[in-house]
Amino acid sequence: MLFFFQNVVNALQWGSFYALIALGYSMVYSILMLFNFAHGDIFMVGAYIGFGIATALLALASLGSIAVPGWVILVLTILISMFLTSIVGIIVERVGYRPLRDAPRASAAITGLMIGIILETGNLALMGAQRVRFPYLIKGETYNLMGVYITNKKIMIVLVSVALMLALHQFIKRSRWGMAMRAMSFDFVIVPLMGVPVNKIAAMTFAIGSALAAVAGILFGVAYPVLDPYMGIGFGWKAFVAAILGGRGSIMGATLAGFLLGFIEIFVAMVFPSTFRDLIAYSIILAILVFRPHGFFGEAHSAKLRL
Amino acid sequence: MARNNATVSESAAAGYFERLLGFMRGLPILAWLAGALAAVILERLVGEPLAVALGFSKVPMLFGLVIIMGSPLMIPSVLAYLAVIYILPILVCGRFLGAAADRAAGKLMRLPFVITVLFYLALVFLILHIWSGISDYRLLTLKLTLIAVIVTLSLNLINGYQGEFSCSHPGFMALGAYGASVFSLVLFVDDKIFGLPYLPAWLGPFLFPLGLIAGGLLASIGALIVAIPSFRTRGDYLAIISLAFLFIVKSLIENVEIVGGPRGLGSQPDWANLPTVFIWTVLCVWMINNFVRSTMGKAVNAVRDDEEAAEAMTVNTRRTKMINFLFAAFWAGVAGGLFAHVLRYVNPGTFGIKKLAEVLAMVYFGGLNSVVGSIVGAVSLNLLSEALRPLQIFKWIIIPLLLILIMIYRPTGLIAFREFNPRKILSPRKNHEGDA
């Protein structure tokens, strides 16, 4: 039983990475009707930018001999790399996706795939093939809650993720930009006629998605401090499946599906030999998709894939 | 007025270029093939001494493309080699044999069409055989390119003709590769995993086609897992379900210890020689071309263009989609089986996201909904991939960048929606009806 709750804690942490990345996929899919296959690599870019900023800040702090607490540096790292990664996301949208807005959607998907490869290879060329170690920022402390061991890192990761998702939900529901985004996901063609700047909304969608992915990257770096250029592939594609599982256009759905995927993976590894993890997790997902193809919170009417 | 002001040399140059183009268009395929045959024979005879004289250590492998990328100082030598060995024979044959070739092409067309096509295919095979005979590298590249043609054609059936976005092709290739490998190993090879062979070894090359078909059928059965759930719905769900299928197949193979798991499966017999691969490629092109030009192929296009309208026009959309998908998966399985036997080793890691990106790149680069496009895409991307090898890591920046440019300026690929009509291609350029 204790083992079960221990794994619940692990699954919450693992799932929050998927949830944060899946949010980016889901938003882009619902608002711009395209699969952004480069998103997993933006997660990787965010992690590397965070690594760079954290290293720079630590060096600055030690130069100035100021005793800056680790969590301050972490907060600064998160904020600055959210900003920088959102710029990367905006550039990706401008260069890769805007010229293809009227093109068949599969072409945009291929472009995304290629941009992802360029990001990976660029990283490999710049940083070399060696994996980098995310700097040590937070002292790990373990709390024993009725026999279940919870580290402060896990608590922080889950809290930060949930807080960001709630913030995003409020933004979409309450603000004017959020309303514009929801309108665009309803009808892409009419919305510009109503005075909504489509290019700005598209850029904003990508910026928000990339910022969330950057947070996921930094939190991943805090939890598992080894980064390599191909880390985005595994997370990216699985988060993509989670986003679709949650349903088109649903923030809540993407979040829940991300956590669900985390739960499925951790609990499958708990019960079966760990080499079966992908096999059983994806079989479960396939089964869910067979019976509910539009996802948990998606609607049954679906847009035809026009090529 | 502008035309009058043009200098004499400019108009002469433009006229010369147009005459050259007209001359080239007037040559039948037979003349080009004869020129290519002369070129490869010439290369066999004098290639090595010429290359050494120009400063290379051996014959430039891939038309000197790799050398151009690797050591730019040798570009003049490469151009000289290309001019002497390749361009000169083709031009000479075109110039002097052009008329005779046209008449011969006319006579060939009067034979039963099957004989004509077989003659041309034999000629092409002869050229490829002589060209690749010089080195093992050329042979391997040629075989892998032919296999890539099969894969690209099969994916084009789903992505181009049917208009869906399918991510499961590496999974089909994996199933085909392992299916064919297990068939060969169990029946013909004294293997430590599978034990003694059941059949004598000399029977192997004759039953190899059965093994490939077995792999293809295994891939088709796997395709059912993707097809049945996704064709009940409309929209983007094929992408997700096929992606899940890809991960499932990869993980499944990694967990089945009897076929080696992640370590892979090796020691397939060396039956995938150039004639075998060439014949299978020709079979694939022929069958897929016939399929897409038939009523069934038109039905597939109709399903892509408007499924409800097709349903209203008596097209059984569900059956059409299933047949198309399973047919494509079959050929992907055959390609996987050939791939396993060419490399004589296969492991599940080969059939992951990277392979998916490569295969999608070949289809979208060459062109959707077009047999010619697929062949062009597969050949050019393979050649490009080999030629850019000296650039090492920047290869994977240049190729994606090239593909992004193609997607922006020609979203459906280089040669899309073009029909492949062998009769038109092989026919003589001038009407020789009156000749004896």
CATH topology of the largest domain in chain B: ABC transporter involved in vitamin B12 uptake, BtuC
- Mean pLDDT level of chain B: 86
Sheet of most strands of chain B: 2 strands, antiparallel
Could you give a short account of the major beta sheet of chain A? 2 strands, antiparallel
Number of helices of chain A: 10
Q: Descriptors for this entry?
A:
heterodimer; A: 307 residues; mainly alpha; two-stranded antiparallel ribbon; two-stranded antiparallel sheet; globular; B: 436 residues; ABC transporter involved in vitamin B12 uptake, BtuC; 2 domains; 18 helices
Describe this protein's structure.
The complex is a heterodimer of chains A (307) and B (436). By secondary structure, chain A is mostly helical. Chain A contains 10 helices and 4 strands, in the order ααααβββαααβααα. Chain A has helices spanning 2-32, 39-63, 70-97, 105-127, 152-174, 176-186, 198-223, 231-246, 251-271, 277-291, and strands at residues 132-133, 142-145, 148-151, 226-227. In chain A, the strands form 2 sheets. Chain A has a two-stranded antiparallel sheet. In chain A, β2 and β3 (148-151) form a beta hairpin. In chain A, α5 (152-174) packs antiparallel against α7 (198-223), α6 packs across α7 and α9 (251-271) packs across α10 (277-291). In chain A, 50% of the residues are buried. The model of chain A is unreliable at 302-307 (pLDDT under 50). By secondary structure, chain B is mainly alpha-helical. Chain B has 2 domains: 2-132, no CATH class; 136-424, ABC transporter involved in vitamin B12 uptake, BtuC. Helices cover 73% and strands 1% of the residues of chain B. Chain B is built from 18 helices and 2 strands. Chain B has a two-stranded antiparallel ribbon with strand order 1-2. The longest helix of chain B is centred in the N-terminal third of the chain and has 36 residues, at 75-110. Chain B starts with a helix and ends in a 10-residue tail after the last helix. The model of chain B has no long low-confidence stretch (mean pLDDT 86). At the A-B interface, α4, α8 and α10 of A face α9, α10, α15 and α17 of B.
